[in-house]
Amino acid sequence: MSGKRMCQSYEIIDSRRVGDTEVVLGYSPTEVSPYVTWKCYAYDNFQGYNYGRYFGDEQAARKNMKQRVDELREELPPGHPDWKPRRHRKDPGMER
User: Fold this and answer.
1) In what order do the strands lie in the sheet with 6-7?
2) pLDDT tens per residue across span 38-58
3) Is 0.90 surpassed by the pTM of this model?
4) 30 with 9: CB under 8 angstroms?
5) 24: CB partners within 8 A, 6+ apart
6) How many other C-beta atoms lie within 10 A of the C-beta of residue 46?
7) Sign (positive/negative) of CA torsion 58, 52, 46, 23?
8) What is the pLDDT of residue 2?
9) Is the pLDDT of residue 90 over 80?
10) How many whole angstroms separate alpha carbon 9 and alpha carbon 32?
C-alpha cells in the first residue's frame, strides 16, 4: 500500500482539519480541471469527499482551500482551539 490518499483520479496533495471537518486539495494531471478542493467529515472518518470545487490552476485552488478553511474556523465557537474571529468585510460601496 502506497499511503497516498486518492479520490477518483485525484491524489490528495494537501489537507487542513478544522474541528470535525477537513478541507483537502486534490491534483490529477489527466483531468480537464486538474485541481479540486473538497470537504471531508469526521463522521465518515474523513474518507468521503463532498462539495467539490474544481480549478484549472494550483494557485486558484490553494486560494479557495484557504478561504474554505478560514470560513470553517470562523464558524467554530469562541474558545475552540481552531477558532478564528470573523473578519469584517468592507462593503465596496461604503465611503469613509
Assistant:
1) 6-7, 10-18, 21-27, 35-41, 50-55
2) 999 999 999 999 999 999 999
3) no
4) yes
5) 5, 12, 14, 15, 37, 38, 39, 40, 49, 65
6) 18
7) positive
8) 59
9) no
10) 12
pLDDT the model gives residue 74: 92
Work out the number of other CB atoms within 10 angstroms of the CB of residue 22: 19
d(CA 77, CA 80): 6
Burial of residue 50 (CB within 10 Å: 0-12, 13-18, 19+) is exposed
User: In 3D, which of 94, 89, 82 has the Cα closest to residue 17?
Assistant: 82
In this predicted structure, what is the pLDDT of residue 38? 97
User: How would you class 30 by CB atoms within 10 Å of its CB: exposed for 0-12, middle for 13-18, buried for 19 or more?
Assistant: exposed
Residue listed under C-alpha cell 480541471: 33
